[in-house]
Amino acid sequence: MYDEARVPSPKGAQNGVPPCALQGAGPEAGLVTGDGSSLTTGGDRQETKAEPAPVKKPHREILDHDRKRRVELKCMELQEMMEEQGYTEEEIEQKVNTFRQMLMDKEGVIPREGSHPQP
């Protein structure tokens, strides 16, 4: 059975890696620590400059989805307000559909077929 208290680490090891494994190793060899600096023998550490991550453009589908969610939220708010004021279901449906179409046009969202019927 392994007992780490009895097994000493090699003398002069850095971070549990024997010095012989570090000789001649550097970023070219793929030995880079978590903070971006490379492992070297001795006390010197080579600093590597971190390049900024490339900025990704959001997908059009995700942006459209967010816009549609905002439109539907506003439509639900209008529907609830009209229900509280006593409008009939037909009036509510007609007004909400008109309001939805106006918001979709304003937001530049192209609805998919079958998502909401046109009045």
UniProtKB/TrEMBL annotation:
Stored InterPro entries: mRNA_splic_Cwf21_dom, SRRM_Domain-Containing
Biased composition annotated in UniProt, kind: Low complexity: 30-43
Entry GO MF terms: mRNA binding
Disordered: annotated span: 1-57
Domain of life where this protein originates: Eukaryota
Chain ranges of the CWF21 domain: 63-108
A GO CC term attached to the entry: nucleus
Pfam assignment, any one: cwf21
PANTHER family on file: SERINE/ARGININE REPETITIVE MATRIX PROTEIN 3-RELATED, SERINE_ARGININE REPETITIVE MATRIX PROTEIN 3
Protein name: CWF21 domain-containing protein
Taxonomic source organism: Muraenolepis orangiensis (Patagonian moray cod)
